[in-house]
Write a structure and sequence with these properties.
It is built from no helices and 11 strands. By secondary structure, the chain is an all-beta fold. Strand 7 and strand 8 form a beta hairpin.
């Protein structure tokens, strides 16, 4: 089982950047596809960005052009660089992992709260 721990959340001014990390442990990290999701108050959880084992990335329309997902296999870490944050970006951000060898399995971190406000 893969364990995921998000951090780096907090209060950020509108227009500001944030780069929360997700630290993975407990398994072979480079065998997993990784992603970031978020859940705003009163809304469903949605995919923000995804990066597969080969480094191919995907971004939701809401964050396309404002975010960059990256992985550091040597340090078992995934980062989500977010720029020009808006109040509507306020949400709990979750790290997600899916093993390439078993598509039925998914793992989640407990989330980190990002609040965009003046």
């Amino acid at each position: 089982q893969l364990q995921l721990v998000e951090s780096g959340g907090g209060l950020v001014q509108p227009g500001g950047p944030l780069r929360p990390p997700c630290a993975a442990s407990g398994s072979t990290f480079d065998l997993y596809h990784m992603g970031w999701y978020r859940q705003a108050p009163g809304k469903q959880r949605e995919l923000v960005a995804h990066i597969n084992r080969a480094g191919r990335v995907y971004y939701a329309d809401s964050m396309k052009g404002r975010s960059t997902i990256s992985r550091d296999n040597a340090n078992n870490t995934v980062h989500l660089q977010m720029n020009n944050l808006k109040p509507e970006d306020t949400a709990v951000y979750y790290c997600n992992s899916r093993p390439a060898y078993d598509a039925a399995k998914m793992y989640w971190g407990e989330g980190t709260l990002v609040t965009v406000s003046s």
